[in-house]
Design brief:
This protein is an all-alpha fold.
């Protein structure tokens, strides 16, 4: 029996990560965050980067709640957990003791985030993209990056595709934080870059790398549209194909 996808709106993602961190038994702050993010505990830059992204998620959640009619939704009720959340996310001493800030992730805070996640799930639901879909996408991106090294594409086109693929890789690596929006941002960036400068990006019509790149973007469009229940960027891939000469 297939596993039901988790709700993956911003508040749900924040709750999943902080719930994991609250159960951390490591001594240092960086060790707990590294385990929660699934990265190496000595990757200070990676931890700070992800904490910054997570703080942006907090701001997004607050903005969504505050945009709801005050006569229909009690803003104060749903925003009560966030002072504690911000204290945890902005604690800058990664080598400090986790016990110093662990108490902020108490039942009140985590429970409040669950209520907030439930609210957003009813207003703007987002389902988690299956792990096997993300793994397959990551494999295709990695293989194309490797093949670009020996490609006969014009240098500027190779550089463009490689840069966009790395953007997709980052969106996949930080999916638990940014969700589908990270992938949609990568997709929109690629389409926008092509529209702004298509002539310099044209390549030989026989190049398979171009078609593989477009296929990757089409996959992102499809899986994120399903997850967020929003329309695909219809016509974007066709425009990209023509611009790239594929």
């Amino acid at each position: 029996m297939a596993k039901e996808p988790r709700e993956f709106n911003p508040a749900a993602r924040l709750h999943y990560i902080l719930q994991k961190a609250s159960q951390g038994r490591a001594a240092a702050v960086r060790q707990v965050w590294a385990a929660a993010f699934g990265i190496k505990e000595d990757d200070y830059a990676g931890i700070f980067w992800r904490l910054t992204d997570l703080y942006r998620v907090v701001l997004e959640i607050q903005a969504r709640v505050e945009a709801l009619p005050a006569d229909e939704v009690n803003h104060d009720l749903y925003l009560r957990p966030f002072p504690n959340v911000k204290k945890v996310l902005t604690y800058g001493n990664l080598d400090g003791a986790w016990d110093t800030i662990k108490s902020y992730l108490d039942g009140f805070t985590l429970g409040g985030l669950e209520f907030c996640a439930d609210l957003l799930s009813r207003l703007s639901p987002e389902r988690e993209i299956p792990a096997n879909d993300l793994a397959e996408l990551k494999r295709e991106v990695g293989e194309l990056l490797s093949d670009l090294i020996e490609s006969t594409l014009p240098p500027e086109l190779k550089e463009f595709i490689a840069a966009e693929l790395r953007r997709v890789q980052l969106a996949i690596d930080t999916y638990e934080i940014r969700g589908a929006s990270g992938l949609r941002d990568a997709l929109a960036h690629s389409l926008g870059a092509v529209v702004l400068g298509p002539v310099a990006l044209r390549g030989p019509e026989s190049a398979k790398e171009q078609k593989r790149f477009v296929k990757i973007l089409e996959t992102i469009d499809k899986i994120t549209a399903i997850a967020t229940r929003i329309p695909q960027m219809v016509g974007g891939a066709t425009t990209l194909l023509k611009s790239l000469g594929a």
